[in-house]
Amino acid sequence: MKMKKSQWVGLAILLALLAFSLGGMAFSPYSISQQDLNAIMESPSATHWLGTDHFGRSMFTRMAHAVGLSFGLSLLCMFTSSLVGTAFGVWSVWGGKKVDVAMGIVVNILLALPGLVVVLLFAAIAPGSFLVLYLAISLVQWVEYFRVVRAVTQGVIQSPARQSSQMMGFGRWYQFKRHIWPAISPSVFTLAAFGGANAILTMASLGFVYVGIQPPLAELGLMTVELFPYYSEAPWLLAQPLVVIALMVFAFHLLAGKRA
C-alpha cells in the first residue's frame, strides 16, 4: 500500500511532536511540578524556551510530558480497540448465527449509549486514573471496528476464492491472512488513525471538566483550563496546548486519508 503525500505530512507532524516529547522528557533540567514563584508567566527565553506558567513551572517540560501522555493513550487505544474490534468482527461472521446475534445485541447496547457519556461515567468512578481512561475509550471505540470488519468479512466469506481455499484444506488462519486481512486492512488503518485523534480529543475533553488526568500531571486539556484565566496577560501560554491538540488531531486525520 502506497501512502499519499498528505499522509506523509501527517506522519511527519506526529514524528516531530513525538521527538519533541521524548527530547523534552529526557533533557529538560526541570520537573513538571517544579515551581519558581519568582518567574511567573515569563515569556519564552533562553532559560525557559516556552516560558513559564502561573506557578512558574517550565512550559517546555510540561508540554513535553503532556504530548507524551496523549501519544501513549492514543496508541494504546488504537491498538486495543482495533485488535478487539477486528477479532470480534471476524468471529461474529465465522462463529455462526448464534454468535452473530449475541455480538449484535452487545454492540447495539453500546451504541445506544453516547460514547462521551460512557467515558465520563468511568472517569467519574476513578478520577485521574490513566488505566480507567484507556479502558473506557477502548470500550467505546472497538464497536466501530467491529461493524466495519463484520460487514467486509461477510462479503469475503462468500467469495469463490475464500471458499476454494477452504475446499483445498487450508486452515482458518491461512484464510484470514490470504483473503480477509487484505480486504479489511485499509478500513482498519483508517479507523485507527481517526481513533487516535478521537482518543486525544476525548482525553482533552475530560480535562476540561476536571475528571481526566489530575494535577500535578500535565495533560493538554487540563493545561488549557488552568491557563485560560490568564489568556489576556500571557496569550502564548494558552495557545501552546491548543495548538498542539489541533496539530495532533490534524496529523491523525491526514494519516487517515485513503491509500493509493
From TrEMBL:
Location within or outside the cell: Cell membrane
Keyword Hydrolase: no
Transmembrane spans: 69-94, 101-125, 131-149, 188-213, 236-256
Keyword tags: Cell membrane, Membrane, Transmembrane, Transmembrane helix, Transport
Lineage: superkingdom: Bacteria
Membrane topology: Multi-pass membrane protein
Family, per entry: Belongs to the binding-protein-dependent transport system permease family.
Protein name, entry field: ABC transporter permease
